[in-house]
Give the backbone structure.
Amino acid sequence: MRGGRRASFVIAGGGTGGHVVPGLAVAAELKARGHEVVFFGTKAGIEAKLVPAAGYRIEWIEAGGVNRVDWRTLAQSAWRAPRGVARAWGRLGRIQPAAMFSLGGYVAAPVMAAAALRGVPLVILEPNAMPGLANRIAGRRARRVLLGMAEAAAWFPEGRSEVSGVPVREAFFSIRPKRPGEVFRVLILGGSQGSRTLNRAFRESWPLFRAQRGRYRIVHQCGSAEAAELARDFEGSGVDGQVVPFIGDVPGAFAEADLVVSRAGASAVAELAAAGKPSVLAPYPFSADDHQRKNAEAFVRAGAAVLAPDAELSGERLFREIERAAGDPQGLERMGAAARRLARPGAARRAAEVLEEIAGEGCGTVDTALRSRNN
């Protein structure tokens, strides 16, 4: 559609940063190509903050999780589902999108159902090694499935998927390799909502780091729920660093870090790969279909990370892993290089290209040049 007709695209996904941030990267690429982008999400998810802040329109729907939830949540989700589909169906009728881009998760499910009823062509992003339930179901009718990891290909129809990578901000790819200095700098990321396990382990580690005063500086993103208490207590810990609820400039924080301790969501590991950062990965054990563990294991197999299972992540274990990394600069360099080899630049651009191609195949909104390329 470059040089051709302007089209509208819808992007659905939310709840966590991993279901929103890649969509924002693709939206920016589509916008640069002259298209309109409309998001679908819930008022309870992080999309309610990130999408409007990025300048995009968002349509609100009702949705709830169904995978690894208690019976009350399941009942509430079942109650919301028809209303979510109905609302999405009505909004899609007004928007008349050329194609839909799904980031997966429970937020995307009712929008994908409505898109199927409307005959809107569907492109799915499956960022994890183990596909989520919504994407596994929708993948049967999707025109194209874009994969973050090759391990996921077995779950989708042959010939319809490709490994394109997970869209991340270009700033991550420009981060240069860094050799540790006199002070070893650690970045701890608990995800957009924070991690109780990482928060607890970090608190337990303070006496150990205090005994190494001047050797380490640690920046910890802890999430909003425990931020006030943890930040207050950290001030008296004697440890050099900072505790914050949320980091806006994550590429900047990556650039300063010698080691990243993180959960293993798809966006998190994609950003680690793009930045070429060595990491200690502590997968969230209750992620849908245990996909975070599979993401982490893929990185460990590649030599790009160390695995620290959630159940084993005490303050002592956290300190020991950081101390071991700090004492092996050559090992850090090898891990960073291995992570960089897993990166896939241009994922957002490729997603935008596929959406244009699918839109052109479906309803004639693409220019002649693009049609010729598809043929």
